[in-house]
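Subject: for your reference before the review

Hello V.,

The reviewers asked for a structural picture of the protein, and I figured it would be easier to keep everything in one thread rather than splitting it across files. Below is the amino acid sequence we used in the manuscript, unchanged from the supplementary table.
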Amino acid sequence: MTTTDTSANQAASEAELQAADAAVSKAEFITQPEDAAHAGSLWQDSDTIGLDTEFVRERTYFPRPGLIQASDGQSVWLLDAVALPRMESLAALLDDQERVKVLHSVGEDMEVFQILTGTVPDPLFDTQVAAAMLGYPLQLRYEQLVAETLGAELAGGKARSDWCKRPLARDLLTYAAQDVIWLPRLKHHLTEQLDRKGRLAWLLEDCARTVASARSDERPPALLRVKGAGRLNDEALAVLAKLAEWRDATARHRDLPRSFVIRDEHLLQAAEKTAGASPDEAIRALPDPVRRRYRDTLFSLLETQDDKDFCRPAELVQLTGEQREWISKAQKTVRSMAEDLEIDPALIASKRELTKIAHGNSPDWLKGWRGDLLGDSMPGK
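And here is what came back from the structure prediction:
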């Protein structure tokens, strides 16, 4: 199927479009715990609930929740995350195994749910991933998917608004309600198409993996978040690894973006100078505000640096000629397979994922539908 295959579309009728508009206009803005509890009781009447979050994350490490949207396809509830910092009814819904939670591109939503409820939506149905498995672009926006499959035109462009400011303007509430009203219908439509193509199990596997990842406490090494880290030698990289972990811990503690604590280029500079000189010289090279606030901490970190147990992450190891050749061949295999399936090659395996395999890693997705699909067709290493 391609996105121009209109035979697979199920355009909403005029009556359905009007009903959706009415639900959006009547969306309930919930600010009281008892009203949130009542909404939670109503969610029990449906086996599918569409969800979305609105938040602000410009000057903080953690997202600041502003709004949680929920819809059963007939009604819309807008939960004020500023007035309701803890949402027991939402937590119960997220953990309810009898009700499927439908989102479009979960992304940072998982972190917002964790902050508000301590849990994440399970079982999950991601309509963006589902659409990609049917041949739509990987990063297809929700309003585009709704327009192409259901024929409903939605307004966009307000995601970066200040969702923590009160009162929220009516146009923002309308936008927020539109973001969830069609999710249950989309889930039904996409499920039919995936089942017809034998790909529904693919989606369920990927969504389960997303949930498991969100629940895991494992974080990638902070070192990998520093742009330009790969150019450092092992001695300087060991210093950078320690500094990057300190920056992450400080950013979390102070709830600041990493760059507000210290910028990547200054971390790199300190690591390089420490590897070839004294900690004092490295600290003197830092900007005045950083030096004044963190001098003693940084001096202690740099002075006690011991790199004997440091191991360069595989992601920062330079590829050999043989590895590059293998990746090139693997990409051709993936592209050919994706062409036959009429999906984006990156949905099967991106270059980054293939690079991990070339480095000797065995991603967990190789044990699932992707591994079954690729089988013995991948080039030998």
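For the response letter, the relevant points are probably these. The chain is about 50% helix and 10% strand. The first strand starts at residue 28 and ends at 30.

Happy to draft the paragraph if you're swamped.

O.
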